[in-house]
Specification:
288 residues, mainly alpha, MetI-like fold, 2 domains, 12 helices, 0% strand, disordered N terminus
Length: 288
């Protein structure tokens, strides 16, 4: 309508003693500062790794630590290149055990968690034996798995499944139960079907909690595979680690530890990327 006053941002800024051109010049600077801050934040992990290696090298030289106790990083990295075939072949075996065991955990723990979360009867039937199985020390079960399944990959995969199942199960149960009941009643009153409620409400609400359990289980998966190879194996990084310690080959032992660290970092990034892809609403919340 004519006759209504229009809002003039420039006159408003001038009235407040601010120059609109100053705001325009300040906007690109703030955007640049945010980008530089984000780049610096992303550089912190590799810089921390470099700092640890430098401190390691300095400590060995400053305290004159013998190589048979703590070799320097240069000797360890040299061993990585000289024995790369040995380390690579055994790393492939260990990674296969981790992927298979953790894959079975993903395929079983999340659906079982969904069933327990949505069905009180299933919780009464399934949850007590699962908790009882979790209370049994897995190291005590490992020799039995060797007797039942032998020294092959099957026993390592099953032990990895047993050690990673419970943390992801608990996260799945908590995730699928996190949705407010009043919101479920509201969507039902609006005519939403059970499938649409599950797909568009329950799953998005549960995913962040489930991914926290996946991160925990992924870390345990690498440990579980190594522990299984400690108990009984003739190949894999755990076997090479035991071989290095038994022969006092400390450089080889540290080389194996470096490879295991790299595997753990790769697993963590795979989970982080998967979460980034599957939860786009969290990206929007973090960027806002």
């Amino acid at each position: 309508m004519t006759g209504q006053p229009t809002t003039d941002t420039s006159s408003h800024s001038a009235a407040n003693g601010q120059d609109p051109q100053d705001d325009m010049r300040r906007a690109p600077k703030s955007l640049l500062l945010r980008r530089l801050k984000r780049i610096g934040w992303n550089l912190l992990p590799p810089l921390t790794f470099v700092a640890i290696v430098l401190f390691w090298s300095w400590s060995v030289k400053a305290f004159k630590i013998p190589a048979y106790l703590l070799p320097g990083p240069g000797a360890v990295f040299a061993r990585l290149f000289s024995d790369y075939l040995l380390l690579w072949n055994n790393a492939v075996i260990t990674m296969t055990e981790i992927v298979l065991g953790f894959g079975l955990t993903l395929l079983t723990a999340i659906p079982v968690g969904l069933v327990i979360a949505l069905s009180p009867l299933s919780k009464q039937i399934l949850y007590p034996p699962i908790v009882l199985l979790q209370l049994v020390p897995k190291i005590a079960v490992a020799p039995l798995l060797l007797v039942w399944l032998g020294f092959g990959m099957e026993s390592k995969v099953l032990l990895t499944l047993l050690m990673t199942f419970f943390p992801l199960l608990i996260a799945s149960i908590s995730g699928f139960q996190i949705l407010d009941t009043r919101l479920l009643y509201l969507t039902k009153s609006m005519g939403a079907s059970a499938w649409h409620t599950f797909r568009y409400l329950r799953v998005p609400a549960a995913l962040p909690v489930i991914f926290s359990g996946i991160k925990t289980s992924a870390t345990i998966a690498a440990t579980a595979a190594i522990v299984a190879e400690f108990v009984g194996a003739n190949q894999g990084l755990g076997y090479v680690l035991l071989k290095g310690t038994s022969t006092m080959d400390i450089e080889l032992t540290f080389a194996v530890l470096v490879v295991l660290t790299i595997i753990g970092i790769v697993l963590n990034y795979v989970v982080e990327i998967s979460e980034w892809v599957m939860t786009p609403w969290q990206r929007s919340a973090n960027n806002s």
